[in-house]
Amino acid sequence: MALSLYNTLTRRVEPFTPLLPPRVTIYTCGPTVWQYAHLGNFRTFLFEDLLRRHLEFLGYDVFHIMNLTDVDDRTIKAAAAAGKRLEEHTAPFVQAFFDDRDYLRIQPAHVYPRATEAIPAMVRLVGQLLDKGVAYKGEDGSVYFAIGKFPTYGRLSRLDRRELKVGARVASDEYAKDDPRDFALWKRAEPIDEQVGAAWDAPFGRGRPGWHLECSAMSLDAISRFGVATLDIHAGGIDLIFPHHEDEIAQSEAATGQPFARFWLHGEFLNVRGTKMSKRFGNFLTARDLREQRVDAAAVRLLFWQTHYRQALDFNDEALEGAKEGVKRLGELRARLVERAAVDSARPGVLAELASELLSEFGIALDDDLGAPRAVAALFEFVRAANRELDRGQGGIGTGAAAGAGAALAVFDRVMTVLDVLPTAKALTPEFAAWVEGQLAAREKARRAKDFREADRIRAALRAKGVELEDTPAGTKWRAG
RNA sequence: GGCGCCGUAGCCAAGUGGUAAGGCAGAGGUCUGCAAAACCUCGAUUCGUCGGUUCGAUUCCGACCGGCGCCUCCA
B16 C1' – A259 CA distance, angstroms? Predict the structure, then answer.
C-alpha cells in the first residue's frame, strides 16, 4: 500500500513520499483568533486531523505545526472595538479554539507558534528579502514583495495571467506599490495598531507583519530543527490558495532558494444551502453550539468523513441527525462485541475474515487521497455483516473472534475516531445507577407477573430520566443518554 | 471579465467507459408481551438539459440551464 495525495501544485493525485522518511513535516494554517472558529473552519482542521492520523497509522513520524494568527486586520479591529489590548482580546479565543479542538477530538499539533511571538523571525525574513532585492519599501512606509522579481509567481493558483476585475476590491495602498499585485510583507504602524499594542520596531520601520509573512517565518523556523527549508505537506482551506499560499511560496522560496512545500493540500468548504459557511454571511455554527446541544463529536466527524475532503459538503440538521444515528449504530456493535467476547464459538472464522476485510478496504480507501467516504462505506458493511453473524451465532462467536473484530474496529477508530465516547465515561452517579437498577428489578417482577401495564409505566418513567431499556434474552440492558 | 468547482433517490453523498457504494429517513417482514436493538426485503430503467465520440457514457468532448468558489489579508 502506498499513500497518494492530490497536490494542488500539479493538480493531480501523486504518490506521497516525504523528504526525509520516516519523518513527515506538516504545516497547517490555523485559526485567526479574533472570534470563535466556526464549523466550516473546523471542517478543514478535521480533514487535516484525518491526514495526520492516517500518516501516523502508516508509520510515519509526523511533526505537525499549526500557527495561531493573533495579529492581523481583524484581530486588531476587534480588539480596538472592545477597547482592549490585542493580547487581551485574543487570549480567550485561543483557549476557545483549543477547547473546541479537544471536543472534536482533533489531535493537537506538536507546536502552535503565534504570530506575535515570531516578530523577530519575521523581521529577519523581511530583511533577507530586502537584501535580495525582491522586496522594497513603498511610499507609504510599508514593505512590499515585488512579484515581478519572482518568475514563478502564480504557479500554485494559476492566476498568473489574471487581470484585476473592474470594480473588484482594490487595496487602499494601491498607489504606494510598484505593481498593484505586490503584497505587503510589513505594514507601517497606524494609530489603531499602536492603540491595541500591535506595532513593533524594525530596521525598515515601525509596523506589523502582513498576513502571509507569519506562515513563512514560523514554518521555516519550525522545520529548521530538521535542517530543512522544505515542508513535506502544507495544508489549508481552498480559499487560501490565493493569495495566501501563493504569497507564502513567493516569500519563502525567494528567501531560501528551495521549494517551500512538496505537497499542497486544500480542503473544500462546508456549505449551508449551497453557500459557504462564513462569518460574513452569518450562516455559521460553532463547535461550542454543538457541544451545548450535546452533539457527540463522533457524529460531526462521521458526517464530514462521508464526503470527500475536496468536495463541498452541504450541512443541515437532517444530515447531522443521520450521522448521529450512524454513530449510535456503531456503538451498539462495539457493545455487542464486548459482551459476546467471553462466550464459546460457533463460527470463529467468519468474524476474523470480516475484520480483515474491513482493515484492508479501509487502508486502500485512505491511501487513495484520503478516500474517507469509501472507508466509511466499508465500515458500515462490516457493521451489517458482523451483526448478522452475531445474530446467527446463538451460542456466541468466540472469544478470539469477538476480540479480533473489536480490535479491528479499534484500529479503524484510531484513524477515523467515529465511535462515541464509551458510556462508562459519561457522568453517572452511583446513586443514580442504583436507583435505575431498583426500577429494573421492579419492572422485571411486574413482567414475570404479566403485569405489562406496570412494566411499561416503569419503562416510561425511566425514559423520562433519559434511560433507555432493551430487553434481551440475557436480561434487560439500560443506558443513559 | 479571468481562473476553477459542482449539479446522482426525501436528506448527506460515493463512484466507474460496460450498465448506479454507504449512511439517515420511509414502507413491509423476522424477533419481542409490547417496545428497543439487530437482521431480511423494497426505492434512482437512471446520474441537470441537449447534442457528439464510442459496440456501449452517469463516467470522455461540446453547448446550454442552474448553483457555488477565488480574483490581496476568508478554513
Answer: 36
Instruction: Report the alpha-carbon distance of residue A283 to residue A317 in Å, rounded.
Output: 13
Cα A340 to Cα A37, A383, A402, A425: the distances in Å are 42, 15, 7, 21
Query: Protein footprint on strand B: which nucleotides are under 7 Å from a CB?
Result: 1-6, 10-15, 21-25, 32-40, 67-75
Helix (H/G/I), strand (E/B), else coil: A293: coil
Exposed, middle or buried, A475 (CB in 10 Å: 0-12/13-18/19+)?
exposed
Number of residues in chain A: 481
pLDDT of residue A426 exceeding 70, the answer is no
The gap between A270 CA and B12 C1' (Å) is 12
CA dist A69 and A116 (Å) reads 8
Give the model confidence (pLDDT) of A358-369 as tens digits: 999 999 999 999
Determine if strand B comes within 7 Å of the CB of A423.
no
Q: Is the CB of A130 under 7 A from strand B?
A: no
Q: Is the CB of A127 under 7 A from strand B?
A: no
Task: Quote ipTM for the complex.
Answer: 0.96
Residues 140-179 of A with CB under 7 A from strand B: 157-159, 161-165, 168-171
CA neighbor of A252 nearest in space, from A218, A275, A279, A278? A218
A470 CB contact with strand B at below 7 Å: yes
Residue range A383-422, pLDDT digits in tens: 999 999 888 875 555 667 888 899 999 999 999 999 976 5
CA distance A475 to A453: 19
